[in-house]
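Hey L., structure's done. Input below.
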Amino acid sequence: MSTTQSERLRELLEPLVSSQGLDLEEVEVDSVGRKRVLRVVVDSDEGADLDAIADVSRALSAKLDETDAMGEGEYTLEVGTPGAERELKEHRHYVRATDRLAKFQLGDGADLVARILAVDDAGVDVEVPGVKGRKPTAKRLAFEDIAKARVQVEFNRKNKNEENAEEA
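Output:
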């Protein structure tokens, strides 16, 4: 897909997604055999439930049908959310990932797995888990020092209510 088509699709779809109270995170066209798939990823601070995804999908489908943005050939429209292991690219992604575990690839080549505690305009305050009985340590990461970051899936994390009940 050319950059021009990608930009045209984003310009066309973003106002519709915004009018539904969502952010347009990604627009991607893939060829699968002879068919094309238009994948649209949306999100919001509160998350996007199935009803919101269905509503925005209908709105996008109608808009695409009335334009030639996808050309003449057949295509499938897929609308979804970023998923459990979302990449953190923009400030709002870090804010939405507050209290989540993330893997950071730093500009100096080091990797760090830490929990995001707070986010401001300059960077991220994280808590690095303690190893072998040691206490967690706080660390500050400036955005310019982060090459890449991705949320990590946690299967055995207790929620705050369980932690507070154990402490009482």
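Residues 3-19 form the longest helix (17 residues). The first strand starts at residue 23 and ends at 32.

-- N.
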